[in-house]
Description:
Elements: E1 7-11, H1 16-27, E2 32-34, H2 46-53, E3 58-61, H3 69-74, H4 76-96, E4 101-105, H5 134-154, E5 158-163, E6 165-167, H6 180-194, E7 198-202, E8 208-209, E9 211-213, H7 214-227, E10 234-236, E11 242-243, H8 244-255, E12 260-264, H9 279-285, H10 293-306
Parallel strand pairs: 1-2, 1-3, 3-4, 4-5, 5-10, 6-9, 7-12
Antiparallel strand pairs: 8-11
Helix pairs in contact: 1-7, 2-4, 4-5, 6-8, 6-10
Amino acid sequence: MNLQGARVLVTGGAGFVGQQVCERIKAAGASEVRAPRSATLDLRTADACRQAVEGIDLVIHLAATVGGIGLNREKPGELFYDNIIMGVHLMEAARLANVQKFVTVGTICAYPKFTPIPFREETLWDGYPEETNAPYGVAKKALLVMGQAYRDQYDFNAVYVLPVNLYGPGDNFDPNSSHVIPAIIKKIYDAQQLKSERVVFWGDGSPTREFLYVDDCADGLIAAAQNLQSSEPINLGAGFEISIRDLVESITEKMGYTGRIEWDSTKPNGQPRRCLDTSRATKLLQWEARMNFDQGLQHTIDWYRANALPVQEPNW
């Protein structure tokens, strides 16, 4: 799809990744980039979705209700409902409005709990997701099925990408809903400000994760919008894995924290391992991640130091 002159809707366009995506679409010469805020257009309703897609050529569906393990345990019903209902209403509205292309942004949480490493797209249905984030993962995975069904019946050009865990400047650092890297950075930063001698993290530090820098993800989504023609899912990742324990050690070293690190093994670890096979993205999108992880971590730490949230007393 040629973005020159296109009218584009980016749901979640004011968010972490969405802002980067909107900038790239504008730079590609789109005639309109629409990024409605949830306060003015609630995409959980069919009427709002019909308004959002009116006159649109391309939809990139990034909007989601999402968070870390804590939020997934606290609000599984809300996470399931919000994410599935937004996607269902929006895709149906886009089909009825003759939108040319629909890019659904899925989640790595859709993969089975014990997926062989590296995760290959064809294993997506080989088991149930990790329990703590299954409602969110299943809701997002249902939109893959919807897109494929709509392509088969209506010849609707729906595509589906699966980004791995994201990080970078501008991430969500709210401890009630943040993911692992911003959560670690905020905990260490607060401990330094409070002169705390210890920091406690959930689990035992053994799970591994893969992390994709926000700019690389935005580039991958643009590549999918421009180049992807298949309804089969495509992984977006950086091609490496790091244990949470090693990640904490790396961040504490970069931030100069010298206190004690403790692990609360009564709390859940989440999925044991995550690392993606990105060969399909390389082949079909002509895309691969470029940011060095150490450099990306430093950029994220530097950004947070300049934009820190109020310090919070620890609750462990």
